[in-house]
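May I ask you to review the protein record following this short note?
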Amino acid sequence: MGGPAVEKAELSVGELAARSGVAVSALHFYERQGLITSRRTSGNQRRYRRDMLRRVALIRIAQRVGIPLADVAKVLSLLPEGRTPSRQDWQRIAAAWRDELDQRIRHLQQLRDDFDDCVGCGCLSIDRCALANPGDRLGRQGPGPRRLLDGSTSPPRVTCGGEEAERESPRPGPSRSSSSRRRGTRADRYP
């Protein structure tokens, strides 16, 4: 019968790849980019401290949500060198990224909830574009999908004379999911 597993302080590149689920070639790339570090044995083999698993996990998760490796490198540079990062070190990293991650979450939720509606891109192909972006008025604000880029979920208000009125501030409160909007009408989203 085997006793308790002994945790190795260092992992070979193959062990790091197996445990992290990342290809050896990707680990070598991360190392060339300065995202992870290793030491070399007398036989010139790489050995990674076990805490590199957490760095690789952060890299994978960040890549999955579209965070560029350059941004990952900046945040990883805040970690101490030569020792295993503590929970406080990781909390500092989380705090540094919190605002950016919250903003990404808001943008993803807005994309999920609003992309099946007029986004203010100028195509005027969705039936609601005539209400939300009559005559492509949003194009005056700049290029691209203005209703998604400027963070607004409400279209410009148009008066009877055709002039654009001031946009009301978004109402605080939870966002409704796209499925709940589909069950009812979207009339409450348009003036």
Notes: Confidence is low (pLDDT under 50) at residues 153-191. Residues 135 and 156 are 12 Å apart (CA to CA). Residues 115-189 form one domain. The first strand starts at residue 10 and ends at 12.
